[in-house]
Design brief:
Blueprint: H1 2-15, E1 21-27, E2 33-39, H2 52-77, H3 93-122, E3 126-128, E4 133-135, E5 142-143, H4 194-197, E6 217-220, E7 224-228, E8 237-241, E9 254-258, E10 266-270, H5 273-278, E11 283-286, E12 297-299, E13 302-305, E14 312-317, E15 322-328, E16 349-353, E17 356-361, E18 369-375, E19 382-391, E20 397-401, E21 404-408, E22 415-423, E23 428-437, E24 443-449, E25 454-459, E26 462-470
Antiparallel strand pairs: 1-2, 3-4, 4-5, 6-26, 7-26, 8-9, 9-10, 10-11, 12-13, 13-14, 14-15, 16-17, 17-18, 18-19, 20-21, 21-22, 22-23, 24-25, 25-26
Length: 473
């Protein structure tokens, strides 16, 4: 390869009025081998016409543009078959003229390049064959051979070396200066969606890596509004989706209860959250018993709720449209005995997480502290109970994620926090300070949906969701 470059420079030196060329080989600042040639000017002691270098570059660009136009014309008028490399060297008469003009233009371009290279060499330029480009001394632009008309066409001045086809899309080799035949330089571009580069893509969205497995709550995002109640009955309420639906219902089926009133019996069914936003339910279920406040949840094909003025929990089967189970929670306060700080008869609150169904309440024995019990979703039998040290009236609401109870500090402060966590695995609690925004300043319901990894909330007539992030397990 180096020998071929020496031959090339020998030819260029002969074209530069026969002047002697001096060769120097040395490593540059990056450790790459660099060949430098110096040719003394026969008539000039200095370089008064250094300003002609931009003109030469402009001429070179004009020649390259001319070659590109000829190439385009040749593609229109010429055939698609190979030339010059076929047996016998026969060419079609209609192809000969465009090819001749193209090769003549390319030869003219090479001559102009040679003249410019001689001028640059006289001014201290250098050529790096192992770099694959000619460097025009100083800050000038790099030069690389222009494209020829076809991958198999040999150019004049290249000797008898065989033509090289253009590499395929999978191969993008460096410029090979030997033999001096046509070789197309290629590059590949990979498009990456911006969303991959943003942290928001991993903020606990369904299907993201952070959504896999359980972990501790570390972040709650801004609320996203899905709908708004228009009547006073919707000042506070509850809305939800079933994380484990039973046909004919799906995970997109959305449920809503407007909880203001003494005889709250209507359960609105929507095919999707978009229908909820439009305000047109697909069906309205009439519950056999009125429910109390905003503690209801939908899970595994049933609505679980606290019947009004009782310490019991009931299961309403959504397909059969009947109550299939009911059980009293021993010692649980009800109808305003141990509510959350916002009131609303929120003594008994139901919750769902990755592990199943929970009930959050307090008792006289616990002296107003939150008691957390795990329920059997079919029979409502209490499987296990934890008594925390978190005062129920001291928090605005609570929810369960991965077996850990989390509480919200305020229902009306715009910049509230997730302020406590109780881990049922270790039976210990800890203080937190995770920012939580009450955009409409009257938070009456917060529940976690383990299928969507989001919080569902009701904030002064508005049905909202909060994206969340969990730590890696």
């Amino acid at each position: 390869m180096v020998g071929a470059w020496l031959l090339l420079w020998g030819g260029l030196a002969l074209g530069c009025r026969g002047e002697t060329a001096f060769l120097r080989r040395a490593d540059d600042s990056t450790g790459r081998c660099t060949y430098s040639f110096t040719v003394a000017s026969p008539v000039e002691a200095t370089c008064p016409d250094a300003g002609r270098v931009p003109e030469l570059r402009a001429e070179l660009a004009a020649l390259a543009a001319r070659l590109s136009r000829l190439e385009s014309r040749e593609r229109v008028t010429g055939g698609s078959g190979p030339r010059g490399g076929e047996a016998g060297g026969a060419r079609d008469s209609q192809q000969a003229a465009p090819a001749t003009r193209l090769e003549a233009a390319y030869s003219e371009l090479l001559q102009a390049n040679g003249s410019q290279m001689c001028t640059a060499a006289a001014k201290g330029g250098h050529w790096g064959p192992d770099r694959g480009v000619g460097v025009w001394g100083g800050n000038g632009p790099a030069w690389s051979p222009p494209r020829a008309a076809r991958a198999g066409t040999a150019v004049r001045g290249a000797g008898s070396a065989p033509a090289h086809p253009a590499p395929g899309p999978a191969a993008a080799p460096r410029w090979d200066p030997q033999p001096l035949a046509y070789q197309e330089l290629q590059s590949e571009r990979t498009e990456v969606p911006v969303s991959r580069l943003l942290e928001e893509t991993a903020l606990g969205r369904p299907g993201s890596e952070d959504s896999a497995g359980c972990g501790e709550l570390v972040w709650v995002g801004k609320p996203v509004v899905f709908g708004r109640a228009e009547s006073i009955a919707g000042k506070y309420g509850v809305w939800m989706k079933d994380p484990e639906p039973v046909p004919p219902f799906t995970r997109e089926t959305t449920w809503r209860v407007d909880a203001v009133g003494t005889e709250v019996r209507q359960l609105f069914q929507y095919e999707a959250a978009e229908q909820l936003a439009q305000g047109y339910p697909a069906k309205v279920h009439i519950l056999p018993r009125p429910l109390e406040s905003t503690g209801a949840v939908v899970y595994h094909g049933g609505l679980f709720f606290q019947p009004r003025r009782s310490r019991t929990v009931a299961r309403y089967d959504l397909r059969g449209e009947a109550v299939t189970a009911e059980r009293e929670i021993p010692g649980a306060g009800y109808h305003g005995q141990y509510p959350y700080s916002w009131g609303g008869y929120t003594d008994i609150d139901l919750a769902v997480d990755e592990t199943g169904l929970w009930v959050i309440y307090s008792t006289e024995k616990a002296r107003g502290a939150i008691v957390l019990s795990k329920l059997d979703p079919e029979t409502l039998e209490i499987r296990r109970t934890w008594e925390t040290n978190i005062r129920k009236r001291g928090v605005a609401n609570s929810f369960v994620i991965c077996g850990t109870l989390y509480t919200v500090s305020s229902y009306s402060a715009p910049n509230a926090t997730i302020n406590f966590a109780y881990d049922t695995a270790t039976s210990t609690s800890r203080a937190l300070s995770i920012p939580f925004e009450n955009r409409f300043r009257y938070l009456s319901m917060v529940d976690y949906n383990p299928a969507e990894r989001q919080l569902f909330a009701w904030d002064s007539f508005n049905m909202v969701t909060y994206p969340i992030r969990l730590s890696r397990p």
